[in-house]
Structure formats: C-alpha cells, structure tokens
Amino acid sequence: MDIKQEVLKLAQEARNAARCIANVSSKAKDRALLNMAGKLEQKGEYLLEANRKDIAGVRDKGLSSAMIDRLTLNPKRIKEMAAGLQEIAALSDPVGEIVKMWRRPNGLLVGKMRVPLGVIGIVYESRPNVTADAAGLCLKSGNAVILRGGSEAFHSNKAIVSLLKEALIETELPGSAVQFVATTERQAVHELLKLDQYIDLVVPRGGTDLIRLVVENSSIPVVKHDKGLCHIYVDNEADLDMAEEIVFNAKVQRPGVCNAVETLLVHQEIAPTFLPRMIQRLQGSGVEIRGCLQTKTISPQIKEATEDDWETEYLDLILSIKVVKDMEEAMDHIARYSSMLAEAIITNNYSRAMSFLRAVDSAAVFVNASTRFTDGNQFGLGAELGISTQKLHVRGPMGLEDLTSTKYIILGDGQIRV
Amino acid sequence: MDIKQEVLKLAQEARNAARCIANVSSKAKDRALLNMAGKLEQKGEYLLEANRKDIAGVRDKGLSSAMIDRLTLNPKRIKEMAAGLQEIAALSDPVGEIVKMWRRPNGLLVGKMRVPLGVIGIVYESRPNVTADAAGLCLKSGNAVILRGGSEAFHSNKAIVSLLKEALIETELPGSAVQFVATTERQAVHELLKLDQYIDLVVPRGGTDLIRLVVENSSIPVVKHDKGLCHIYVDNEADLDMAEEIVFNAKVQRPGVCNAVETLLVHQEIAPTFLPRMIQRLQGSGVEIRGCLQTKTISPQIKEATEDDWETEYLDLILSIKVVKDMEEAMDHIARYSSMLAEAIITNNYSRAMSFLRAVDSAAVFVNASTRFTDGNQFGLGAELGISTQKLHVRGPMGLEDLTSTKYIILGDGQIRV
C-alpha cells in the first residue's frame, strides 16, 4: 500500500472512531485512560526496549547529549507518563457542557453546547511523553487523534501507541481513536495535510521549519505552537526587590523554555539603581548580559547588544537589556520584537498596569508576576497540548476545553420564522 | 506597481491601522460607524452611479434577472445598508470584556480578556451591502479589514469603501482600517492568502469553488462559510400540526437560503397519516416533492428520489422525503448526507429530543422549531458576518464576539515559579 493510501485509511478510520467516542460517557473515557496508564506501567520493559532502538539510531547522528537525554525513557519517566494519563482522567469532561443559554423574545431557548472537534492531527518533534499526553487529552475531549512524531523517537512512539490502542480495545472503545503514522517518510505529512475532509484540526509542535511546512501546506485548520521571545518591563514605580526576584526567576529558573524572559526593558529613571544589582545577581548565576549603550554606561563590563539580540529567542542563560524612556517606548519595543507569547510589567502604578494589560498584544500579559507561569497547569487548566501562538480559536496554553468546539442547541415549542 | 506589491502594501497599512483601532474607545468607533451610515445616505447618488456601471457591465454576461436584482442598489437598499451600520453601532463592544477570571492557590488572578483578532480578510461574492456590513462589524470589534468583493460588484464596492474611508478619516480614525483590493485580477487573492504575517483571519463567502480556492491556498487561518443541506426529522411522537407548520415554514418561507430544509425524514409509524396532508400543503405552495419508495407508496403521484436528491442543496421549492424506521435511521441519514449546518427533530418524546440534541453533529440542532432560525439576528447575536460551517474558532452564525480572540491577563503581587 502506498503512503497516500495508508494515510487516507488512517484518517478514515479515525473519522469513524471519532463519531463513536464523541458520544461515549465520561466514565468510559476515564476507564480507558486509567487502563492506558496501567498498561504503560506494566509494559515498561517493552517501552524501554523500543526506546533503546531509537537511542541507538541517533547515536551516529551526532545529537547533543541534551537531545539524547530528552529522547531517553527510564522507569521514572514511564511512571510520569502514566501519572499524566491518570491526571487527565481526573479532569472534568468538557463535552456536553452548556456554555451559556438564553431566551429569545419568541420563547426559543438558544444555547451553546461544547462538542468534540472530531479528528485532530498532531505533528511533533518532541519527547516520547508527548505521545501519551496528546492521546490522553484528545480522548478525554472526545476526539480521535492522528499522531505523527519525530523520526528520532519513532520506535518509542510506536510502542507507546500500540499499548494505548490495546488499552482502548480492552475497555471496548475503538483502537482507531488513537492512530499512528507508521512511516518516517515526509510525504506522509504532506498527504495528511490535504485531508480536510476527515481531519478537523492539525497542531504542529516543533521548530520553525516544521511549523512553516504545516502552515503553508495545510488545507486543514491549524493551531500553531511557535516560539517565545518574552519581555519584562520594569517601570520607574516598580518595587525593585520584587522586580529583581521576578526577572531572576523568569531568566534563571528554566532558561530553555518558551516562557523564559529574553529581553529586559528598564525605565531610565531607575536604571542606575536597579541595573547594577540585577546584573550582579544574574551574572552570579552565570547569565551573560548584552545591553544597550545606556546599560553599558551603567555596567561598562558587559557586551553590547546588537539588533540581532532583540530578535533572538536565546533559550539559554543570556539576557538582553534595554533602557527605555518610558512605558510607551517599552511597549513599542515589545510590539516590534516580541513573538507575542508572554510579557510582564513590574509596577505599582495602577493606571500604567491597566494600560499595559490592555494594550500589549500577547497571549499572556502579566502584572507583577513571572512570565514562567505561562503554562496550562500553572493557569489551572490542567495538562496542555501546547501553547498556541495564533489568535484564532485558542491563544496561549491549549487545554481540554480548547480541544472542543461548540454547537448551537435550540429548544422550541413550535416556533416558525415570520 | 505590480499586484503583489499592491496587496502587500494594503496588508501592511491594515496591520498598522489594526494596532491603532484595537485600542480605540467604543465611543470613537460608534461615532465613526454613525458617520459611515450618514455618509452612505448623503452620497446615495454617487453609489447609484457606481452601481449602474456594474449593472451595465453584467448585462452582456447573461446573468439571471435574480442575480442582477441581487446586485442592484436603490435608495431603499442604501437606507438599509446605513441602518445596518447604525445597528452595529448600537451593539455592545466586545473588546476588553473579561470573559472569566479565577484565583490560583498562589494568589495569582488569571483571566481571559477579549481582544480584536487584528486584520481580517474577506473574500466574497455577494450583494454590495455585505461590503458595508463586513466593514462595520470588523471596525466595531476593533479589527482592520481587507475587502475583496466579486468583480461584478466592483464599482459599487469601491464606491462604498471610499465613503467608509472618508467617514473614518473625518472622525480621526485611520482610513486604512478599511482596505479595498482595487483590482479584479484573481492573482490578488492568491497574493493575499500568503500574507499570514499581516493578516490574522480570512473569511471566504461564496460558492464552493471560491471556498476551495481559499482553503487550499491560504497560509492564513480560514473560517469558511459553506453550503447548507438541512434536515427535519418528524418523530412518531411528534405533534403533527406543529410538524406541518415547521416543515412548511422551513421549506417555503424563503427557499433560496442555506438554512431552508432540503430533506424531510419521517418515522414510518406516522408516515401514512402525516405525509398525505404535508405533501398536499407543500404542493399547494408549488413545492415539488421527490420521495423514497415508501413515500411513493403513500403518495403515488410524486417523483421518486434518487441518490442525487439526498446530496443536493436545492435552494428552491423542491423537497426530498424519506420514510425511516426510527430516529437512529434518521440520524444515520443525517450523518451521511448533511452539510452539518442545521437539523431539527419534531417530537414530544423527551429522551429522544435530548439524544438528538447531543448526538447530531451540526452547527445548530433544533427541537420543535424551524431551521430557518439559524441566523445571528434570530439567535440574538446581532448582525453576522456569515455562518461558519467549520468547527474551529466559531461554528454557526459569526457575530461580533467571534471576530475577537482572548488573551490571558494575570495579576500578581510578586509571584515567581518554584
């Protein structure tokens, strides 16, 4: 069977499964999720063996040890993967919720009911645990899923999916609710992206190239999960102790993630007092500082920032710093360079806090808190499928609710249109 | 300047205007909308003159008189167009609304604030009034808009937009918040669809070919407005008088629109009593009936329905009728043939009404009411940009709220992530 036929068959089976699991009870879905979790724990050795094949496969490809670490499964990680599925089972089921309902003058009750999207395709380059997370979130929200992971994790992903399917079938749900693209050929992605007749949403997670490939070739609606170039603006009316703690946290606590801060903007009035202590604290934890000319005047030993720095998501212990005239200049800088994921203002000035909240056009806008909170779990949404960097359908962390659509339900007693 | 450059310039100007009008007060937007309305009324003769050029242009192309009628402006229609803008001004502004807000255990307040999408492109083949409606809805929701109408209405659309721009500028808002693609070359659409850097959403409204063109070529997120093939199922526990009124209304009141009924499904138990009176009533208003074999047994004089009939959106005084064993068979028929816009069940059986509501996967599902209510105004949403037939972002009538996104706002007092 050629790739085109194979992908089409996967999608058609997923479409059929979707119609079934859209109408399955919460209890049945939770039973399946808990069985999936148990299965992953019981068959740990099977997963580790598949994972060893992947590790052996990339050894020759010169991947960094950090990347090999990301790819590696071990008993602790398998346990976490299972725990993730148990947590999803514990979340409340969004399907069937009546979001709102109102009465029309003619007596019609018009409401919006949450319903599954249908079939979701996920194209990702990530750790194997994403496979179980994504399948769990889609199942809980009543969707079928088609998974296409990175080639480096192929055997691990395939093994995980085979266990998930087993678990589904054991609890009398269709195994084809979780589909796996069992080829590493890139053509499979291109074929998948044409199947808008069967697939309702495609979510690309990974590098810029992967996301462009999907955005440019998909006739299926896309929710993209792009990079994060986050800013913190420290206002002249900030509590400087608080500012120091927040900036330090946003840069140092986990620098390799999309919600870490990359550029610090500081009001000129407080720059001479704030920057020396801030820079010293950051350098003490190994952060490299790249500053504008004014920053260099205050801390002459640092490297000068170039235009490139304002445009770079370091994902590393590097921070660029710019001194600004006022909040407006900070917001202009953000509008120009931000990836529109998360920005924060540190201030005790009420009206500036409100203006910043209102005017900054990012998925998450913070007052007096760390950008590192940009995360589904931290926001209280439960597990997330990723963080959307587009405006349509969902912006920011994509939780269970965001894997649903709504339909209008209308209750009448014989109304006709006049 | 070539088309590519021209479209790019339009989009860049729209992007700049969007940043401005996203933060403009409701009062300023309403003042502009009322000024737009006044302008259309004052300059009626200018619009009629442009419209006469369009009418002259299509005379030779053999358009039907119905299509020429749709294209024609007259003083009454101009007044209605102005009234539409006044109605939009009277709607409440969705921008800045806090949709919900909750408190996290660490004291963070996390909320979702409604924000404009940014720049919306609309590609349409419709009556000239859509130009003013679409511009008004986008402005009220804080978005800039790029309008690309059908070539047959080119001069009318251009004249309308030039007045809208004048009205914007007079009230000190950027004229480039309403952009018009001033060429009928198809290449302009292709160029537009690539500009995902500047445009946040594209809405195609028109025939199947136009929609496929946009869906297949756009790297910008799309909300499509496709056809309607609607069903009514009359259950064996229906109030037959009510069923007769509703079916008659849904077919006859305005047969040429997407929410009119095309196929009637009737439970076998009541078919012999219900169908003769229903068919007689419909035929009395000139409706052609095409029935399944069982329907023909009951009413031998009617035409037999073919497979094609189940798949056809007539948009005309034609109705196909099928007798079904039970509700499950009706729902199977709907799942197979419906365009998933609107379906209704007529029944007094509570549990079947609830099952139908839950299981039928259409944008609007009715109990005991006419499918003709599938409309933004009828649902109480105010004016609509169209009716979405996809699941992502918005499903069903697309009102002001659906022209917005949300962003997370987070109010802290020094929280850092641990």
* Largest β-sheet summary of chain A: 7 strands, parallel
User: Numbering strands along the chain, what is their spatial order in the largest sheet of chain A?
Assistant: 10-9-11-8-7-12-13
- Give the largest interface pair and sizes: A-B, 70 and 70 residues
The value of Rg of chain A in angstroms is 24 Å
Q: Kindly, what is the distance between the CA atoms of the first and last residues of chain A, rounded to a whole number of angstroms?
A: 56 Å
How many domains of chain A? 2
CATH architecture of the largest domain in chain A: 3-Layer(aba) Sandwich
Unreliable spans of chain A are none
Estimate the mean pLDDT confidence of chain A. 95
Protein described:
The structure is a homodimer of 418-residue chains. With 418 residues, the first copy, chain A, is α/β, with parallel strands linked by helices. Chain A has two domains: 3-225 and 398-411, Aldehyde Dehydrogenase, Chain A, domain 1 (3-Layer(aba) Sandwich); 230-378, Aldehyde Dehydrogenase, Chain A, domain 2 (3-Layer(aba) Sandwich), CATH 3.40.309.10. In chain A, 44% of the residues lie in helices and 20% in strands. The first copy, chain A, has 16 helices and 16 strands. Chain A has helices at 3-21, 26-42, 44-59, 65-71, 75-90, 129-140, 154-170, 187-192, 208-217, 240-252, 271-284, 293-298, 307-310, 327-337, 350-359, 376-379, and strands spanning 98-103, 109-116, 119-124, 144-148, 178-180, 201-205, 230-234, 261-267, 288-291, 303-304, 318-324, 342-346, 364-369, 387-388, 396-397, 404-415. A seven-stranded parallel beta sheet of chain A has the order 10-9-11-8-7-12-13. A four-stranded parallel beta sheet of chain A has the order 5-4-3-6, with helices on both faces. A three-stranded antiparallel beta sheet of chain A has the order 1-2-16, with no helix packed on it. In chain A, a hairpin with a 5-residue loop joins strand 1 (98-103) and strand 2 (109-116). In chain A, helix 2 runs antiparallel to helix 5 and helix 2 packs across helix 7 (154-170). Chain A is globular and about 70 Å long. The termini of chain A are far apart. The mean pLDDT of chain A is 95. At the A-B interface, strand 2, helix 10, helix 15, strand 13 and strand 15 of A face strand 2, helix 10, helix 15, strand 13 and strand 15 of B. Strand 13 (364-369) of chain A pairs parallel with strand 16 (404-415) of chain B.
